[in-house]
Amino acid sequence: MIYEKVLLVEGDDEKWVLPEFIEKNGVTWEDKQGNRIVEIKPFNGKEKLNRKLLNIELKASGLKILGIILDADEYPSNRWKSIRNCLTEKFPDIPEQLPQSGLIHHGEIKVGVWMMPDNQEQGMLETFLQFLLPENGKALWQFTEQSCQQAKEQGACFKDCHSDKAKIHTWLAWQNPPGRQLRHAIKERILSPASPQAAVFMQWFKKLFEV
After folding, report:
1. pLDDT tens digits, residue range 111-143?
2. CATH code assigned at 116
3. Backbone φ, ψ for residue 114 (5° rounding)
């Protein structure tokens, strides 16, 4: 099948969360005929986002726009360097620094990169979702952070690099109803889709995919 617009994402969480988030920001993801504005594909792990995968996607028949969303993880500069090295074979003028507003590179194929949470800081999708906490949820969030730290001291075995995952899911466990999945938390506005950081992401998305 020919897809003119493709979005590569880290995994299934992004595959389900991002369409909900984008729709709640006023962009219809799928029309009544089942046509999606973008074909979203998880690459299932940072190790699998390599030059070979990107070359396969870039050679796909009919492709006009390719977007890439990945986690910065603990070392944002290394993460950007890695993805940049994968792209410079086809696009030698990719900038050395990832723009704070996200990369949009115009060429025969338009390419965009967004590195979660904000193209600068370390983190992941769950870090970005912290930007969506409602104003009346900030006090509970502080308590969540303290609780997760105390749990770690008591032997909780989540990795330090996954602390943002632990925090957001702990916070959601204390909502009504408790323990909603990330995409449902956005759909039901337990997490608010509107924030300054979310607006920057939406500007990048709409400009890249021309929606």
Report:
1. 999 999 999 999 999 999 999 999 888 899 999
2. 3.40.50
3. -125, 130
Considering the entire predicted model, what is its pTM?
0.93
Q: pLDDT at position 180, please?
A: 95
Cα distance between residue 188 and residue 160, in whole Å: 29
How far apart are alpha carbons 68 and 41 in whole angstroms? 10
149 has a pLDDT exceeding 70: yes
Residues 67 and 119 occupy one common structural domain: yes
Average pLDDT over the chain, rounded to whole?
Answer: 93
Tokens of 35: 């046509």
Residue 17 near residue 76 (C-beta atoms within 8 A): no
Question: Are residues 105 and 34 both part of a single domain?
Answer: yes
Question: What is the number of structural domains in the chain?
Answer: 2
Looking at residue 125, its pLDDT comes to 96
Q: State yes or no: pLDDT of 44 exceeds 90.
A: no
Residues 107 and 30 occupy one common structural domain:
yes
CA angle 123, 124, 128 (to 5 degrees): 95
CA–CA gap between residue 158 and residue 176 (Å, rounded): 25
Distance CA 130, CA 138 (A): 10
Q: What domain range is 70 assigned to?
A: 5-123+194-209
Q: Is residue 128 part of a domain?
A: no
Instruction: Give backbone dihedrals phi and psi of 44, rounded to 5 degrees, phi first.
Output: 55, 60
